[in-house]
Design goal:
This protein is of the alpha+beta class and about 180 residues long. It is about 35% helix and about 35% strand. It contains five helices and seven strands, in the order αβααββββββαα. A seven-stranded antiparallel beta sheet has the order 1-7-6-5-4-3-2.
Length: about 180
């Protein structure tokens, strides 16, 4: 057997093992982070339900100072939509409010076209707590073969989770500042 065939067989074996490892990754993902905000659910909900307010607290908004934004539909509630086109870090896509249950839940459809195509669901769940509001920010979606391969080299849980933690801290600060003060 020549060296060429030995190398070819070894490369094919490595590729087969890699393909099996990729295929065995989960078919979907979910990233979630929570915080408690010293503000009533009504205050937190009002910020989240207004798609234009994302610029006030979302770390994704800060990833490209020259990002082009287009708002369509109402400013708040179901149908409110933000489309953006930005640098390599923020990419191109849109996010639209698809569910809005006052003071309890907001769901958004996230469509990315660059740097990679993705269709994910983003949710904000608000629960009253003795300290104000327990807020959970989550994102979930399917994982195709390319997404599974990407997950082997880039930990989405840490990358997106870190952005969620930053955003929740900013939102907490904003909501606590805007919350009505007891007289």
């Amino acid at each position: 057997m020549t060296l060429f065939w030995i190398v070819t067989i070894a490369v094919l074996a490595i590729l087969a093992v890699l393909a099996v490892a990729i295929a065995r990754q989960p078919d979907s993902f979910r990233v979630a982070r929570s915080t408690v905000i010293d503000a009533p659910p009504e205050t937190v909900f009002a910020i989240l339900n207004n798609i234009r307010r994302g610029i006030d607290w979302s770390p994704f908004e800060r990833s490209d100072p020259n990002m082009k934004r287009t708002f369509t539909g109402p400013d708040k509630g179901v149908g409110a939509t933000l489309a953006w086109d930005g640098n390599r870090q923020c990419g191109t896509g849109s996010i639209r409010i698809v569910e809005s249950i006052p003071h309890r839940h907001i769901a958004l459809a996230l469509e990315m076209s660059r740097p990679m195509k993705a269709s994910n669901r983003v949710t904000f769940t608000l629960e009253p707590s003795p300290q104000g509001t327990r807020l959970t920010w989550a994102m979930e979606g399917p994982m195709n073969f390319a997404g599974k391969a990407f997950s082997l080299v880039c930990n989405s849980e840490k990358m997106v989770g870190g952005m969620f933690e930053t955003g929740l801290a900013e939102l907490k600060q904003l909501a606590e500042w805007e919350a009505p003060r007891a007289a």
